[in-house]
Amino acid sequence: MPNKFGVNTEHFAQTLLYHLMIESVYQNTHSIQAYVLYSSQSTQSLRKTAMEPGMKEKLIDLRNALIAMHLHMAFHPKSENFILDQLGIQHFAHAESYTKRDAILLLSIYQTLLPHEKDYFKEFTGFIAREQLISKTGRAQSQYIEGLASLWLLSVTEKRKQHMLLSGLRMIEIVSDPQDYPILILEETETEVHLANFRIGDTLVLYRQASALQEQIFKATLIDIQSGKYWIRLRTRQFPEKLRSADANWNIEHDFLDRSFLYQYQNLCDWAKSSPHKRNLLLGIQKPESLKNDIYDLHPETPQAIRPILQKILNAKEYYLVWGPPGSGKTSMVIRFLADALIHKCNENILLLAYTNRAVDEICEVLDWIKKDSGTDYIRIGSRYGVQEKFKTQLLDEKIKSLKGRADTLELIRSTPIFVATIASMQGKKELFELKSFDTVIVDEASQILEVQMVGLLTKFKRFILIGDHMQLPAVSAQTELESKIKADSLRKLMITQLNMSFFERLYLQCKSQHWVDAFTMLELQGRMHQEIMEYPAKMFYEGQLSILPDGLNARQKRNYEDLFKLKSTEFQKLLSKHRTLFVPSNFSENIIGSKTNFLEAELVAKLVQAIYNLYRDNGLNWNEMSLGVITPFRAQIALIKQQLHAHVLPVANQITVDTAERYQGGARDIIILSTVITDASQLTQISSITEQGADRKLNVALTRAKEQIILVGNPDALTESQHYRNLINDYTFLDPNLVQIP
Known about the structure:
Layout: H1 9-25, E1 34-37, E2 46-49, H2 55-75, H3 83-86, H4 97-111, H5 115-137, H6 150-153, H7 156-161, E3 165-175, E4 183-188, E5 203-208, E6 218-226, E7 229-234, E8 249-254, H8 259-272, H9 276-283, H10 307-314, E9 319-323, H11 330-344, E10 350-354, H12 357-374, E11 378-380, H13 396-399, H14 406-415, E12 418-422, H15 423-427, H16 432-435, E13 440-443, E14 463-468, H17 489-492, H18 503-513, E15 520-522, E16 525-526, H19 531-541, E17 547-548, H20 555-558, H21 571-578, E18 581-585, H22 599-618, E19 628-631, H23 635-647, E20 657-659, H24 661-664, E21 669-675, H25 697-703, E22 706-714, H26 716-719, H27 723-731, E23 733-734
Parallel strand pairs: 9-14, 9-15, 10-12, 10-13, 11-12, 13-14, 16-17, 18-22, 18-23, 19-20, 19-21, 21-22
Antiparallel strand pairs: 1-2, 3-4, 3-8, 4-7, 5-6, 5-8, 6-7
């Protein structure tokens, strides 16, 4: 499409598309002018563009064709004339050379697949397309629009109800670095607390308070949160001087990127172009091979309890799955001594992955121990903004700063036997596989990772070891169980039934069903929960196989709770110090039925916290941020409980983490108070995460955060409609809320 403006064809089309977008949002667009700046040109660098006759229609036709293609992949029945089954090389005869190259490669890969493999490819293509669509536009049937479109379609009130907006922020400092993007420091100014669901590492849009349609929008990343202050790193080096005023108020909202979906499509293609043996292995059709039963000389500090498991893992030739319940030493013991053996006994190059930066930090603690013990160094892949300060020196970017050139960098990469990263960081650094060959990959938190986020990555290794717990919270997907149900009979016969199931869970269930006992195990010892707290999760979620540590190591897990508290002045304190598992019924007002807040329950929780703190104080026991935590399902209730903690003038209010089960996963406290909030049985689905086998994973996460005591607070009429909560209430000791008196 040549044009008279001297502008590159793609750039010209892009400016016209921007013009069409602006037209669709604003009423009056007559005054809009579009320019393209070519900064490398010494003359005529700024070039004006305008709509040419017929161009608008051509671009809209092209846009509509792309949308139709996306909707086809997302929703068209995969067994009826699906586009991948209809396309041929002839359809790309007139395409650009690079487009034709990529299309021919995709078609050649797809056409070599067997029928059930094509079903797999098509089903997951549809899943990714639907996830991508929801991230952009939200759901038509939802009360509020989600996704990127919410930026301009929702009001401030609606965004606050959904906890999607952080408003009224004031800019207090701009940190500029010639080698990096600017960092803005903003602080809260509004007296009213507006709870928002932002966490470190989130991608953001930032704009001055008014409207996202009236102000320039900046793309950014949240890199730190401290005491009402937010550190935000821009994704551009330019920040206009006129916007640096401290008088302006700023808003932040979530951003949505397509990059993660691109990685998922690439993962699917990487699986499809792998060998037939590897594809069968990953589909659960091919039984994994084992090596001969070699006995490896493990590190002398390796605990006796995990030595047989490590021997089995090391003798697995292709893969091994480790089901690790809470507190079972997945990272501190299994990964620690497994990585040591792979490096020093098997002479392998290994990659360690996890879903979250927090888990990767825990792995780095283990790798630091190996480094100190043997001198074997490691490299971390990722951004310095997602890494604890003490691990930043291990980042690849930091290690290559002192090197002289590419040869030194290549030597560093090839000579370092251990790499560690999050799944997301590794997906963005796949060129590493062109520079270095890895023998084994160990994936922690594997049960939190969707199949399409992992299946292609695993083709790049001789062996993979997955460690996870499918009885805790599942991988995150925007689609419901019904939407994620696989329809292809060829896959359902293979026990591939849910698109939103983690790869770990699917393969574990397949191995267990086929009795491939050399490919999986469960860690049966846990050192976190007291044995009384452990009883219910062990029975309901871990097949009755979970146990406390062996004699000599389990004194804390068996001790009498009363022994900790010599001074017990009230009946309530006597009950509180005697029982480790308690149920406290809460009251509610009729006008809050169905609400996601419960004031009376928040007040009761605050009183419980104060009473427990007083009991600790009176008995001279140490209290810190690990002493007690509160888990509650709704963000609005989090804010309410925090308000009540401060209203009771608790000196330790700031030491108590109040959060959801999702955010608590991976953590632990001595005492956990579980505030369920709900007042009607219809709300049970909102506080549960039920597996196909009927287990409530969200409840399991909450219960297994507690080391010494768990206190369930809730409305018994609503909760007992759930078999899980009914059993729990029957098992726990009843504590009359009227006894909770604060002197």
